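name: query_chain
kind: protein
chains: 1
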Amino acid sequence: MAPPDESSLWATQKFGIGQPVPRSEDPHLLRGEGRYTDDINLPGQAHAVILRSPHAHGVLRGLDTTEALGLPGVLAIYDAAALDAYGPFKCIAAFPNRDGTPMIKPVRHAFARDRVRWVGDPIAMIVAESAAIAKEAAEQIILDIEPLPAVAEIGDATAPGAPLLYDEAPGNRALDYHSGDAEAVAAAFAGAAHVTRLGLANNRLIVNALEPRAALADFDPADGRWTLHLGCQGVMGLRNQLADIMGVKPPQLRLLTGNVGGSFGMKASSYPEYIGLLHAARALGRPVKWADERSGSFLSDCHARGTEVIAELALDEAGHFLALRITGMANMGAFLTTMAPLMSTLNIVKNVVSIYRTPLVEVSTQCVFTNTTPVSAYRGAGRPEGNYIMERLIDTAASETGRDKIELRRLNHIRPDQLPYKAASGMVYDSGEFTAVLDRALEAADWAGFAARRAESQARGKLRGIGIGSFLEVTAPPSKEMGGIRFEPDGSVTLLTGTLDYGQGHATPFAQVLSQRLGIPFEAIRLIQGDSDALIAGGGTGGSRSIMASGTAIVQASEQVVARGKEIAGHVLEAAAADIEFAAGRFTIAGTDRGIGLMELAQRLHAGLVLPPELPATLDIGHVSDGVPSTFPNGCHIAELEIDPETGQVEILHYSSVNDFGTLVNPLLVEGQAHGGIVQGIGQALMERVVYDESGQLLTGSYMDYAMPRAPDVPRFGFISRPVPATTNPLGVKGCGEAGCAGSLPSVMNAVVDALSPLGISHIDMPATPHRIWAAIQAAQG
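structure:
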């Protein structure tokens, strides 16, 4: 047999699975050649500006647009009445209340009708020849709004006599969620040797993507189709949402997404502005563009997190966990977004038990409406919150019972010999070596040498702390995903899949999988994700699912290419298909040196190779995978920091992590994903927080008021991979995109509390800002 094609073998070795290949798009982006939504312009386009409510709550009696419409260059003003033909937005999460009744889903249309319910609530869209003219016109519109009392905080919204956002939601409650066996949990707590009880606030955040939301809509009357350019997390899902609202069939919409500039969950769902743009493009017969300003995005982009819980952990005399009980309230904002209740309900159930044997779990969550910007998913979407709850409980329980926090974790770890392990959440963990990961993390962080370092800090008048953040995440559940492979006439290969890169770097690892499976030169592969017309299915990117979903679809599609190729190669080589073997990009007759390369075979087909009718006519595949089960990425992060007691300032000195992400397709990109998540977690832990006043006005509405982590706020990160391949997908991969948040929230906050513990401080809520820490120190010192 002839040796494999050398170029294919070299490509597999250099660009195959496990190689740290730099992102293929980086040179393009670094040269400023990226094409973000606001970079796109169409001939004859008009420009839109959104008129938003200045009040958090009020009766909308009308708006006078006379002067605005009289300005030269103003083309139209559309309010709720103009969009009356379109349907409402839908929350697809459907959980029953504790008593079995359905959750309350008030009707929400694109623009405010009778009431405004938060500062920023869209009321009308002004379309003009330029954005400047549209903005001037918006300032000329006279709003008639009768202000009503507003509630911005959960406690205020649920207080007796609180003003209601919706008449059909008594007490402003959208959902009274409950999961678990309440009687069994109560019995476990009643019989426990010790119960740890801890109140935890998960601060509300503003998402702050690199590019604020923007969109450009065009309508073709010849075929009755729209084209909508925008940044999102999956063109197929968003297309279907928008088509449902517009009352048209999905093929009447084409969504195109180029470079996104970040999303983290925020750009995944439909927004009111998109409905206004689609309507305006058809009504005016010309493209209409809208690009939000940063000040507008603070109000209109969905916020994140925002929960308050009482967490309880029951232990027996030996320290074994008996039961976990979470009772909380979650701020939904002014209406339910597409998946709004998921993060604070089911995703807490799935993730809070983490890597620990916990026989019983009960989660109760009141999902509450407030006069604030609606809340949606944000990196982790309940996964970091769940792990934060558990890790803070364990540290507190160890302190209260006089146990070593390391040994308490080891005692309760799920052991490898217990896998597969069915957790109290109902999830079945297939793989993991949790104690080994912890031990490796302790070694990497030099846990044993911490006492000496603490003494050195103390000698300088500083408080030093070290914190553990073990985590396990349940990635997104199975969903259909496309794995399309198309051999082009120019010798390139197009890979089509319905996840969507909004900063992760999908093109490189997906090409690595395809290159290794089929021996295709890495540089010949290009990726299409952001064109709904080119796809037949797609679940989008979210829940750390992309490499499992698209990777599996690519593997399965590759197998189909090989199967087709054997039939066609058998004809070309004058042999039976059963005698054809495939390796390193080449088909050969078993036991001989006769063969043909896959790429050569594809080119011969394009050149007009005549095949018998019973053979496949092409190597192209349009495969849709049924999806694979959730995976369980896990790890242990350890943060070490110093606090200046005079100012409350925190400095993170060292940060190390050991992670099990299963098979690493591209270690370089995985480490980068971890770094990004860690920084976002540090931001939430130490500085980020949305603040409203009592009237519902946003006080943190700019970067002058809302703190974001910067390079000097974070140290160099230690990253160690200790993978245990997943058994539930063909690549053995586990998700990694959200894990950095899940590890950094608890490790940093446990380190802060550890530093403050000599002063008798046992807890402090996020964000642990200098003022909050300083105040806690002053209170502790009397």
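note: Residues 6-34+477-625 form a domain with the Aldehyde Oxidoreductase; domain 4 fold (CATH 3.30.365.10).
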